[in-house]
Amino acid sequence: MLVEGPVEVELEDGTVVSSDRFRVALCTCRRSRRYPWCDTSHRDRA
């Protein structure tokens, strides 16, 4: 899922992560090594 930035995401444990990039990809499959950001590592784990 692509989101226009900058963006802040609150994780389930209450931790807030942020990105100042103009567009970010959010991981929706939870397989990313950089969760909550998508790094396409899901392709290797399919």
Automatic annotation (TrEMBL):
InterPro entries: FeS-contain_CDGSH-typ, MitoNEET_CISD. GO terms for cellular component: cytoplasm. It comes from the Bacteria. GO terms for molecular function: 2 iron, 2 sulfur cluster binding; metal ion binding. Keywords: 2Fe-2S, Iron, Iron-sulfur, Metal-binding. Residues 4-46 form the Iron-binding zinc finger CDGSH type domain. SMART domains: ZnF_CDGSH. Gene3D superfamilies: CDGSH iron-sulfur domain, mitoNEET-type. This is Iron-binding zinc finger CDGSH type domain-containing protein. It comes from Streptomyces gancidicus BKS 13-15.
